[in-house]
Amino acid sequence: MTTKPKIEIPIMFCFDKNYVIPAAVTFYSLLEHADKNYHYHFYVLHSDISKLQQEKLQETIKDFGEMAELEFVDMAHRFDEIWKRIYKGGHFAKEVMYKLLIASIFPQYDKLIVTDVDVVFLGDVSKSYTELDCNDDIYIAGVRPIGKINSYMENYKEQWSDEEIQKLGHICGGYLVANLKKIREDNMEEKFINCFKENGYRLNQMEQDILNICCYPKFKYLPLSYVACSYMWDYFPNDASRKTDENYSYEQICEAMDNTIQLHYATSIKPWKNVNCTKSEEWFKYLAKTPFLAEFLDNLGRKMENTKCKAALNNTKTRGPVYRLLRYIKHNPTFMFKKDFYHRILVKIRNKIYFHSKKDILYICDNVFPSKYSGFRYEEFVSYWNKFNDVTVLTSKNQIEALEHTENADKLINDFKKSNAKKHHSIMTFPFDDKFREQEFTMQLKNYKKKLAYVIFLNNLIDKDFSYLNLLEKYQIPFVFTLYPGGGFALDNNTTDEKLQRVFNSPMFRKVIVTQKVTRDYLINNNFCNEKYIELIYGVVVPEKQLSVDTSKKIYYGKDKDTLDICFVAYKYMKEGKDKGYDLFISSAKKICQKHDNVRFHVVGNFDENDIDVSSIKDKITFYGPQKTEWFSDFYKDKDIIISPNRNNQLTTGAFDGFPTGSAIEAVLNKVMLMATDCLKQNIVFKDKEDILLIKSEVDDIVKKVEDCYKKPEKMIKIIENGYKVAQENYSYDKQISSRINIIEEELKK
Question: What is the value of pTM for the model shown?
């Protein structure tokens, strides 16, 4: 008698080398709870998982015998052509294609399970697969998100219509059963790609949004237990009175929490990052059953050792030499037989003698040497360059030219050196697109030993293209950095969180400067950094010349002239400048011009009449292009209002601007009234309606507040004068630059 073959359940995973250990936990927990009457075929779509890691993952499922098999599919060059056609820039990676094109990737199946790997399975998944009928008129089976926690949907209201929003937020992307048969029959993959092409710039949840938009309303809703997110245990207390939600009843929520099938660690706080993570005990229970336990504990031990080293380095009595020596001997047991060991000793002695008399030895690290178009960055460079005795700037040429627009990179740097000549100072530039860039850096650095590095922006420390962090650690150079909004930093963004975790775990980290209270709170609340290492300097660095502008000849509307002049100053990073609210500015301008003839609009930055149709107001709007800092003083003399309607979550998930932006503050210091959005409640120094006017991301609200100024210019002038005084006080050289210099000096003394 022959045994009836088991029904195969295919399950797709896609992750990179950094998620191998979480994936092992996912595999083991899924199979331990799986119905043994089925055969589970795991497919891992990847581009960088090593052979050794693959072998270890194969070992993970060995306990389950013939019940499971694991197959790796190398996707390194798949979809390259289609990606070139649809990718327009932004925060997406090519891996987004895997979930969108599963019907093509797996032509042998009519249906398929897709799951994330930041999860633990606590129940059987087979029922979700077997109960999906491929002949039904549905594309995807998945879980409707918790309504009260699905707050990101608020972000869509500013750029999506009500009809479009109706299609979003129906299905979570963490666990899906895809009806591949129906997807192929209706040629849905083409619709997915077209949707990506048309909407890539405004997607927040990447492939999840695309699947929701294109597949709506052909969904099958699975019970909440298939994606029970860890934050549910934080959000819903044990008392029955609060276990209610707009999408789920009390009974459904209780069922999901008591009989969880997939436990999803959906926030940036993961068990392998923070042992205090909610429900982390479930994850560690399964980690202990995998072959990766020893590797995880070893890495954990190294983190602890690094922390210990850092503590020792901060101790003025020990300075941590014992720890560094022991680590070196451990990893280099034959060091005494290597010629370069003695060479390095001689170099260190030479450096010690050479730098013995110097008090200040500082690196400034930035992937772009700033031009005068980049006011705050340029001001920081000039200030540190002139303050400290021995400065080396590490930067690139390639990106300078992209930012500068008009000036040659070499000329820009040479002009800076001529106007700021210092005996021991130097600027080292490297082509960051050169595959030998790290070796070039190393050759330059190996004969140096600076005391401290100051790094501008998170992406300069650690990014996919090039990172200073590895070099600073390699040469044991402590660092201070500024965590500005942007530059790789976003809120509740997995990529950002991984970078922050890496940076704050570095033994070379000393201090972080933050410019917004929301940033400080984010670091503390998510346990990225102890509060004592965080320095809040609210606002942004303003070029010193802007702090001493002659405003005695200021021309005011209603007092010195009949025309109300309104300006918009920003750099365009995305279509229609939606992150900066340029579309709101133009729409407001059109409405205002319908009512008033004596209102004029002025746009500074890389915007022009081709970005949005302005033909109806072409005689009332002027475009000036990008301009250097010194140009603005004359420009602002007769300007009345600057509108800064910035939006969050546009360039990437969690993206936001500082409040106010540097360009807005420069305008206020030139006695221009600021109208600005403040969605994250970042403002802590300006009073609404007294110093500035806060606006909503709505055309009607902007128009209303402009009309109030139009009708009551005397009130506007009073706000201008008040705002000017507040800006003078809070953006002074002492508060901004001197505060930063004091932090750097303090660390240099150590």
Answer: 0.52
